[in-house]
Amino acid sequence: MTGILYGLGIGPGDPELITVKALRLLKAAPVVAYPAPETGESLARAIVAPLLPGGQREVAIRVPLLVERFPAQEVYDRAAVELGEHLAAERDVAVLCEGDPFFYGSFMYLFARMAERFPVEVVPGVSSLTACAAVLGAPLAARNDVLSVVPAPLDEAELRARLSSGDATAIIKVGRHFEKVRRVLEELGLSERARYIERATMASQRILPLGSVDPGDVPYFSMVLLHKRGEAWS
Ligand SMILES: C[S@@+](CC[C@H](N)C(=O)[O-])C[C@H]1O[C@@H](n2cnc3c(N)ncnc32)[C@H](O)[C@@H]1O
Description:
The structure is a single chain. By secondary structure, the chain is of the alpha/beta class. It has seven helices and ten strands. A five-stranded parallel beta sheet has the order 3-2-4-1-5, sandwiched between helices. It has a five-stranded mixed beta sheet with strand order 6-7-10-8-9, with helices on both faces. Strand 2 (31-36), helix 2 (43-48) and strand 3 form a beta-alpha-beta unit. Helix 3 crosses helix 4 (107-114). It is elongated and about 60 Å long. It binds S-adenosylmethionine. S-adenosylmethionine (SAM) binds next to helix 5 and strand 10.
């Protein structure tokens, strides 16, 4: 017998957007783990802070924000060993995942290292994709629209090609790539059809037309939603 590793989707920021199942498992877990920056507070932990029962053991997985993958891979190697010790001692471990664990979530790095040795359960969450559409007040896709998710770190030519096709697009991981994204959308004549959403459902949420965004002040938790046909649902 071992404990169970839970990948808990905790939603995009508003603590009320956690599912009933994730809340039950969170409150029962003797060990709660979460990604965190090298220094400072974990966003995932901050989201569930008002819901934690207290008394749980906590493991912060401190991931350096680097372009190269290898230092981060070592962090996950070490985290897998530490969490594996709790599981071997029959303690369930809940890993907090902002949004949904399997929608571009870093939980997959632990999943890849641990799923063969321990029972794993993934609890889906409200992802930033649907949360951004909700706070924008605009359906994400309608009828036969092709919806694409495009990461902003792609190089400019690839970004242009991806944004040229499809009907509805979510551009994620915007952060320091905002200026490039805005330039490509302007070149394609699409900027009026796009909106910028920052920290959706959090207290500090902002929604702006692209022209009003200061590229020097764009956080990682931001997204651009584009719908080429405008109000395709009306
Ligand atoms: C590594 S992905 C993780 C996505 C997450 N697992 C989910 O289900 O939404 C991180 C990207 O998701 C987007 N994102 C996550 N939360 C967001 C939020 N509350 N508001 C706007 N964008 C968000 C941003 O584009 C960010 O760069």
